[in-house]
Amino acid sequence: MDPEAPLHGGTAAATCPVCQDTFVPAPNKRYCGKPCRDTAWRRRHQVRAVPIIVPRSRPRRPLTVYECEACATRSVGDQRCGECGSFMRRIGLGGRCPHCDEAVAVADLLDEEVVPKVMR
User: What kind and span of H or E run contains 44?
Assistant: First the structure.
């Protein structure tokens, strides 16, 4: 037996699929009113959000410029000095200069900190 069917000639109450209120049904009426009908239409026709894909993290060592405190030699990606063998200190992110092939940090070019100290 249908729970929304009228019993012995009485009126049945239908339930609105949006707000779950009961209302007196009419032919071709699925919602209790225009606001619920509009809400249902917006839900059916909303554009699906494109999922955000976060790129995988890359190691920073190959992109980091180091400088030896003893002999002032700079290198990209190597933490140990090739001349004296001591460990070098990190200057910041950078790479090789396309003109002179020297190790250049981005902070040297911009005169400011590129990566906040919190991220290091």
Answer: helix 34-45
Strand locations in the chain (E) = 14-15, 22-23, 64-67, 74-76, 89-96, 103-105
Q: What is the pLDDT of residue 31?
A: 93
Give the list of residues 6+ apart from residue 64 with CB closer than 8 angstroms, or none.
76, 77, 90, 91, 92, 93, 94
Strands 22-23 and 14-15: antiparallel
Least-confidence region, from 40-44, 99-103, 107-111: 107-111
Among residues 118, 57, 59, the alpha carbon closest in space to that of 93 is found at 59
Q: What is the DSSP letter of 71?
A: T
Q: Which two tokens stand for residue 85?
A: 């063998």
pLDDT tens digits, 52-76 = 887 788 888 888 999 999 888 999 9
Q: Answer for the pair 87, 80: CB distance below 8 angstroms, yes or no.
A: yes
